[in-house]
Structures are given as structure tokens and as C-alpha cells.
Amino acid sequence: MGEETVPSTGPGAGREARPEAGLGLRERKKRETRRRIADIATGLFLMRGFDNVTIADVARTADVSVNTVFNYFKTKEDLFFDREDEMVEAAARDVRDRRPGESVVALFRRRFFEGLDAGEYRTAFHEGADAWLQAVHDSPALTARMRELGQRIEDELAVLLAEETGAGPDDFTPRAAAAMIHAAQSALVTEIAARKRAGETLEEMRDDVYAAAARTFDLLEHGLGGYAAAPPAAPPAPPGTGN
């Protein structure tokens, strides 16, 4: 059976598969085959639901054998999160390549807004992001894998921050900073995807999304401080005014 026309969204969607420098023809073809199988699988998952698609379905649609699929992917979840390693490596690369004098929060603020401008998958501010995240939400296996991916990214960031700041093994600061940055970005992505699922277009939510991102990174940069402080106590009533 030939290849079925299926959409591809989520991490890596829309990127051109280009030959990597320094790779031989055989290795490039293997990578192209891997990407093609994963893109077809993701399209099937989004159309039918992750739990309703088998490896045999993927193999048949991609016109390869089941063994070929397993040669490239150990599990069905690996097909959906086929660019997981690239996502972790990209976050680490951003930290290493940040501008002179740029703090890590300023870096992630800049990269998030660049992602919004470009409609990158990591911000969910692109067509199809809601479908991809809905597929994750609908599958316990994918939800668990998404949590694992988030933890990998957070752990890698914590290690890098410790290296960059010379923090000792007992210094919890890099871990706390990594957790806050990751949580802030995750909250923004979740909100964007939820509004898309509710029917809002990217243009309708654009101003709110940019404002929310600015407020979120302002909190990271300047601290929660007096945020959500309780109202001041009411002054005591003057003598003789009570009942």
C-alpha cells in the first residue's frame, strides 16, 4: 500500500529535511527514512488517536515492514516524540550560545518571543499545535512521555547552569532556576494551546499571548516580590463610631 496523505504537526513539523554536513550518503538516507516514518506516524496519530494506531498501521502507510519501523524506533511513543533528543540539545545549545552578558532568563525570554514571531512549535503558536498537544492529553502513555521530556530538558538546564555559575554540588540554585524557567514556559504553551482548542485564531489571541509572555518573564526577571499580597488591614474605626 502506498503512502497515505497525513498531516504532520508538532515538534519539527514544517522543517525541511536537509542533508547534515559531514554525513555520508548512507547515513543521510537512513535519517531521511527515519524522519519520513515518524512524520507519517504522527499524522496517523493525530487523525485517529495515538491508542488507535498500531505499528503495523504505520508500516503499511509508510510502505515499509514492521521490522523496519522497529529498526528505527524502539517504541510507539518514540515515533511520536521522534525529535526529543533534538529538543533537549537545542535548549542546551541556546544556553551555551547566549549573547555576551545575557542572563539565562533574558535568553529564554528572547528565544520565546522569537519563537512566537516565527510560529515555532516550541511556543505552540502555530497551526496544528493544539491538535498535537490534544493527542498528548488524550493518551496516558504520551502524557507520561511528555513529562519525562520536560524533566530531561529541566535537568539538562540545571546541569548547564551549575557549570556556568560554578555552583557546588550542594547548591540548589541551578535546579530551582531551571525549574522556574521550565514551568513558566510550559504554562505559556499550555495556555496558548488551550485557547486554540477553544476556537480562537492565532490573530485573535496574538496581543494577549505576547502580553502574557511579557508578564511571565517579568516575574522571572524581577521576582514575585509583592505579587498577590493580601490587602492591607483596614484602619481601626474611630472611637464612638461602633455599634
The stretches of 5 or more residues where confidence is low (pLDDT under 50) are 1-9, 12-19
Helix percentage range: 55-70%
Tell me about the biggest sheet? none
Give the N-to-C terminal Cα separation. 87 Å
Computed Rg = 23 Å
Would you list the SSEs in sequence order as H and E?
Answer: HHHHHHHHHH
Count of alpha and pi helical runs: 10
- DSSP E strands, number: 0
Shape: globular
Q: Which class of secondary structure composition applies to the elements? A: mainly alpha
Compute the average pLDDT: 88
β-strand percent reads: under 5%
Descriptive tags:
globular; 0% strand; 243 residues; mainly alpha; disordered N terminus
What does this structure look like?
With 243 residues, the protein is an all-alpha fold. The protein is built from 10 helices and no strands. It has helices spanning 25-48, 55-62, 66-72, 76-80, 84-96, 104-118, 129-138, 140-165, 173-197, 202-222. α5 (84-96) runs parallel beside α8 and α7 (129-138) crosses α8 (140-165). The N and C termini lie far apart (87 Å). Mean pLDDT is 88; it is low at 1-9 and 12-19.
Could you give the topology of this structure?
Layout: H1 25-48, H2 55-62, H3 66-72, H4 76-80, H5 84-96, H6 104-118, H7 129-138, H8 140-165, H9 173-197, H10 202-222
Helix pairs in contact: 1-2, 5-8, 6-10, 7-8, 7-9, 8-9, 9-10
